[in-house]
Amino acid sequence: ARLLRQTIPSCQLVIDDFGTGQSGLLLLHEIRPELIKLDRFFISGVDTAQTKRVLLAAIVSLAHVLGISVVAEGVENEAEFLVCREVGCDMAQGHFIARPIDGADMVAQRYDVVTRANQRDRRARGDDARTIRSLLDTAAPLRADAGLAEVLSVFRVSHGRACVAVVDRQGAPVGVIEEASIKRFVYASDAAAGERAETGDFRLADYLTRCMIADIGTPIDTILAGQAAREWDPCVLITEAGHHAGALSREAMLRILNQRRLLAAQNQNPLTRLPGNISIADWISEVSAGPDPAALIYIDFDNFKAFNDAFGFRQGDRAIMLFVDQMRTQFATAECFLGHVGGDDFFIGLRGADPGAARARVAELLAGFAAGASSFYPPDVRRRGMVEIADRDGKHRLVPLLCASAAIVALPAGQRSVSLDEISAELAALKHSAKLAPEKISVLELGAPASAF
Q1: Is there a contact between 127 and 177 (Cβ–Cβ < 8 Å)?
Q2: Among 69, 87, 116, 125, which residue has the least CB neighbours within 10 Å?
Q3: What is the pTM of this model?
């Protein structure tokens, strides 16, 4: 890898079928590629397999922390495409987009099927994309084969710009050139700089700084998380349709981060750090006014008071955080909204989810929480499945172990007029029937009768 980069300065190294066989983390460390192509295994059925979704999101996040772009390989349908985009994949290929072609010159700049899928998918990325676009530095980038004279000229007229984006022949970003890295040339005499430029000794590739590259549709939170893990790049290079669109400066990212911290501090639960009722109401109002399907999920602990009475409030807080950690793990993608109503009541919002898929994901969450919560009890209580408590009158009685129940209101696709008050009333009514259901789940699709599981 080192020899290739020395011989061909503009070359980019790619790991194919990453995640299987010998294309693993060791190879990622050894050759430090510019791009990885994820094996089809991680993409197939990712829209319905929660474990794959979590794995995919983790791999993409790791790659971005290392400054590596990610291609989702073998995307076969729109649902897989949307999940890949939500978790931050930079590019995608597969039969959903186009059939195999013979040469790079046959690759289209835009594909109608992708445009239509993005138009149908009206998710939160729109607001993030507009914010990113408004803050982009759209100064013209340098080509990777640019000479020293051109590089010095750019910095000479850039009026304090600390770095400039560098792209390959196809217009895709490969990194940035920082003024500090070529300081000795910047402060050399014009004659000396020109002489060195004419000798051909200078190679721009030798002075590149690799930084995070993200598509314009990448959620801002994903970019900020990646930057925090990388200890902040000079900038993030933003692409659109695979081509350089501009640079998001460190100052712009810090401005966004500070704004989000202020908003979050105004409305979040101090224990769980999840958004509170104001944010939950805003999210429900936004999604209920749109045409896309969605699932609104109200989750309440069962037997929580008995648990607190038996083990104390500190164990109660630990049980709450156990649930929150599991919820964050299982609903760790951009289409999910997580909120804390208060106490032992929580809210999950899923954009684009049908009732069946929402019920399956919630059932997995409830089962995991019940299993985890059982670990708080002594072995004899777990075997019995009941805990003995004393009520206010001092009488002892047996109460089932801690678990949770969920009410789900499904909003079908299409235009609708439903108020926040109506949705809240439906969730409250379903909450009681969910506690009596065998699987602790009650589902109502607006326009259809409720069903309990």
Answers
A1: no
A2: 116
A3: 0.52
